[in-house]
């Protein structure tokens, strides 16, 4: 398996006040599909819209993985995830606890 050494940081304004105990959330995004990932959007489950593309300007090839950090100042673990592929197809996954998982794998 190929590992790409890139750390992506998201600092989105979600309307949360920064709590003293809030920490950045890091996880590994694994692409176990035969397509490249061209966009990764993550929002808290309470949000009604997607945040910016966390891998803007970067493509995650099939069979690779990347470290992702969410530096949003929120003290939550549950996020909705939207992944877009090179062919324009998308998958959405709701209410994922990224603190417990430590990784998120995209499957076909």
Looking at this protein, list some descriptive labels.
single chain, 108 residues, mainly beta, Immunoglobulin-like, 3-stranded antiparallel sheet, 1 helix, 4% helix, globular, disordered N terminus
Question: What is this structure, in a nutshell?
Answer:
The protein is mainly beta.
As laid out across the biggest beta sheet, the strand order is 1-4-2-7
CATH fold name, please?
A: Immunoglobulin-like
Distance between the termini: 17 Å
Q: Approximately how much helix is present in the residues?
A: under 10%
CATH class category: Mainly Beta
The largest sheet, given as strand count, sense and whether it forms a barrel, is: 4 strands, mixed
Unreliable segments of 5+ consecutive residues = 1-21
Number of domains: 1
Task: Give the overall average pLDDT.
Answer: 81
Beta content? over 45%
Helices and strands, with pairings:
Elements: E1 2-10, E2 25-31, E3 37-44, E4 64-70, E5 78-85, E6 90-97, H1 98-101, E7 103-106
Parallel strand pairs: 1-4, 2-7
Antiparallel strand pairs: 2-4, 3-5, 5-6
